[in-house]
Design brief:
The structure holds two protein chains of two kinds. Chain A is an alpha/beta fold. In chain A, 45% of the residues lie in helices and 20% in strands. The chains are: A alpha/beta, B mainly alpha. Chains A and B meet through strand 8, helix 8, helix 9 and helix 10 of A and helix 1, helix 10 and helix 11 of B.
């Protein structure tokens, strides 16, 4: 036993020494070719990189990486070394807060691009605000994100209270719905959009014949679909993500329920076709993410992305890219305002909110006083055949829904 | 109304087969094998991969769907059965003399390990860990215009019933079954009667995990979407079903599973009506678990469980 104890102590000492050495090595400054030190500026991307939602989180990181690498040289000319700090929040609020605390401690991080999930972004931003760390969200749509009026929180996508009403107006005006059934997955996001949808259809004079929640992660939705079959709606709206949404659409078809199916952007995913099969045809999705390949600039960008990463950009990749460019633009302006010196977090935060008429590949950006983007749009996609991406059947400017 | 009954029965039978795995291990080792839900998940992945392979080779179109399904189920059973034996050997057997909480924690560890191992393997191999099983049975039997039974649900029910009947016969009639029952009553005495306790326990894990694998394949064929975390919720429900029926008791697990499926289904359908819209279908789990608590208050050992006697 004594021998073992001695060995353990030795190992511990070795580990500590190694840690110290590593700690000293990773300093804040690094010599460049000329021997003079470049100051490090970090942009963090936070999204789920593991767990069930990694498929949506990874493209945000890649988009951020792409934007960063393109501007590296420009920042080097200004005397700064640009670094990406990619973080994994596992789509879990607890992990998100831990990551936020880690980022706040790293003084070189000037902007956070993230998160994917509103439920994670809200508690994390309560941490960022403590040290005025600016956050540009590529994907969060919950109203509470900007309604808390935190000076640090900005988003480049439309809000839930735009996605819900846009879906509702589409259901009423374009699909001619008289009776709708609303289902949600009881998450901040899913129930958020579903509630806004419900409010707007009711305002449009449409009858809501049912409002039910399901549990994310389950596979059998026959119980709730029996209620749908009994209510005979024209349109079923689902607030939630594609795994459950696709199964709902599939099981609806198996039960011969003829109602049209509308979902939010969580439903706009290539997997819908794979999971729902034939039942995917005719499914509508509202999405705050447009199809970048519809414009020439966007197509060229998508080609560069494909060449760089060997995969087609996922739906939020372009937003990750644009959000990072907005962040870098803010940092550049802050550097200029600070006389070429490294700006403080507060300076970056103040400059970011004032950004006007930024032209991105996916969206233009003009922040209002709350950090909402006035130029954001809501797009309506329809799965017309077993193919992804699906065509956009309608565009609705979300600025109209901003309060 | 009959449609709700049918849907509830299908779900209930899935719970029941998974519950069998929990109950068998508990009966023999008094261990709640929390890794069973992940063995189920591994079975689902194995079965789906076999189906996808058959699909890619073009056999799926020519082979009768039942043959393809049985083929997938057999491979899944062998794989997850072996996995079960392996888990017992490395994670539980070394801890057999330890306090009961220790193997429980070890089981939770195995469960996390398997989730992430499958995620890693599928991630490296297919670059995606959501798998969609090809649809095997698309037909529906229309009983009345408002009532129909998809063939795939019927397949689940039939397969489940067959497996349960065989398991029951095995445990109650065969020599190995008798040995299993002896070990569950008293390991020390059983070993004095020249029963190889370790081998019986391995066999229990082989059968329990094999059934879990078969259930996984059936689940994939029925609901088509699987992912590494699919076992979690289902495992909790199946464990609940085993407790409801009386954990350690094989017919109890079947009864508990079916009952839980029906409770959920009827709860979802009638809660809204009964409470005038105040509580919707999302409260089905609350309803089902409230009933569970009520049952356990009056019958703490479950519906068919025998009260534990202190051995003197």
């Amino acid at each position: 036993m004594r021998g073992k104890g001695g060995l353990m102590a030795l190992l511990l000492v070795v580990a500590l020494v190694t840690l110290l050495a590593v700690g000293c090595g990773g300093g804040a400054t690094e010599p460049n070719d000329g021997g003079q030190a470049l100051e490090v500026i970090k942009v963090a991307s936070v999204s789920p990189l593991s767990g069930p939602q990694a498929g949506m989180g990874e493209p945000i990181k890649l988009g951020a990486q792409m934007a960063l690498e393109e501007q590296k040289a420009e920042f080097e000319a200004l005397g700064f070394k640009l670094e990406l700090s990619p973080q994994d929040d596992q789509a879990d609020p607890k992990v998100g807060v831990t990551v936020a605390q880690k980022l706040i401690a790293d003084k070189n991080v000037l902007v956070v691009v993230g998160h994917l999930n509103s439920g994670v972004a809200i508690p994390a931003s309560e941490v960022y605000v403590k040290d005025n760390l600016c956050q540009v969200s590529p994907a969060n749509t919950a109203t509470a994100i900007t309604d808390r009026e935190l000076p640090i929180v900005n988003r480049i996508v439309a809000r839930d209270d735009a996605q819900g009403p846009a879906g509702a107006d589409f259901a009423t005006n374009d699909l001619g719905a008289k009776k709708v059934f609303v289902i949600h997955d009881k998450t901040t996001y899913g129930q958020g959009v579903a509630d806004e949808f419900k409010k707007q259809v009711e305002a449009n004079g449409v009858q809501v014949v049912g409002y039910e929640g399901i549990t994310a992660g389950e596979s059998d939705f026959s119980a709730v679909l029996n209620a749908v079959a009994a209510a005979k709606p024209d349109v079923v709206y689902f607030g939630g993500m594609y795994p459950e949404g696709s199964l709902l659409a599939k099981q609806m078809k198996e039960k011969d329920i003829a109602a049209k199916f509308i979902g939010p952007d969580g439903m706009y995913d290539p997997k819908v076709i794979e999971i729902a099969g034939e039942a995917a045809i005719g499914v509508y999705c509202t999405s705050v993410a447009g199809d970048v390949t519809l414009t020439e600039v966007g197509r060229a960008w998508a080609d560069r992305y494909q060449a760089k990463f060997g995969q087609a950009p996922g739906s939020f990749a372009a937003y990750g890219y644009d959000a990072t460019n907005v962040a870098l633009e803010a940092i550049k302006q802050a550097i200029a305002a600070n006389g070429g010196e490294k700006p403080s977090r507060l300076q970056v935060t103040e400059v970011a909110r004032a950004i006007q008429d930024f032209k991105g590949v996916a969206t233009d950006v003009t922040f209002n006083v709350r950090g909402d983007n006035k130029d954001a749009k809501v797009f309506i996609y329809e799965f017309t055949e077993m193919k992804f991406p699906a065509p956009i059947v309608k565009e609705i400017v979300a600025g109209d829904y901003l309060k | 109304m009959p449609q709700i009954l049918l849907d509830g029965l299908t779900l209930g039978f899935v719970y029941a087969i998974v519950a069998l795995g929990y109950t068998m291990v508990y009966g023999v080792l008094k261990l709640i094998n929390f890794a069973h839900s992940e063995v189920f998940m591994v079975g689902a992945f194995a079965g789906t991969e076999v189906l996808l392979f058959l699909h890619a080779m073009g056999y799926l179109a020519t082979l009768p769907p039942a043959v393809a399904l049985i083929c997938a189920m057999l491979i899944a059973m062998i794989l997850s059965g072996t996995l079960g034996v392996f888990i017992e050997r490395i994670a539980y057997r070394p801890l057999r003399q330890a306090p009961r909480l220790v193997p429980l924690i070890s089981a939770i560890g195995v469960s996390f390990f398997l989730q992430d191992a499958v995620r890693l393997i599928e991630g490296l191999w297919k670059n995606a860990f959501y798998l969609t099983a090809p649809t095997l049975f698309t037909n529906k039997i229309t009983i009345t215009p408002t009532l129909s039974l998809p063939v795939k649900s019927l397949v689940v029910i039939m397969a489940a019933v067959t497996m349960m009947v065989f398991l029951h016969l095995f445990v109650s009639r065969s020599k190995w079954g008798k040995a299993m029952r002896a070990v569950s009553q008293d390991q020390a005495t059983a070993s004095l009667m020249s029963i190889n306790v370790n081998r019986v326990i391995s066999l229990t894990f082989l059968i329990g995990a094999g059934l879990g694998g078969a259930a996984g394949t059936l689940f994939a064929a029925q609901y088509s979407l699987i992912h590494p975390y699919v076992g979690f919720l289902l495992g909790i429900k199946a464990f609940t079903a085993a407790v409801l029926g009386g954990i350690g008791n094989i017919p109890g697990a079947m009864l508990g599973g079916i009952l839980l499926g029906l409770l959920e289904s009827f709860g979802a359908a009638f809660l809204g009506v009964a409470t005038n819209g105040a509580m919707g279908a999302e409260y089905k789990d609350v309803f089902a678990f409230a009933i569970l608590i009520a049952v356990l208050i009056f019958k703490p050992s479950g519906l068919l469980g025998e009260p534990e006697r202190e051995k003197i």
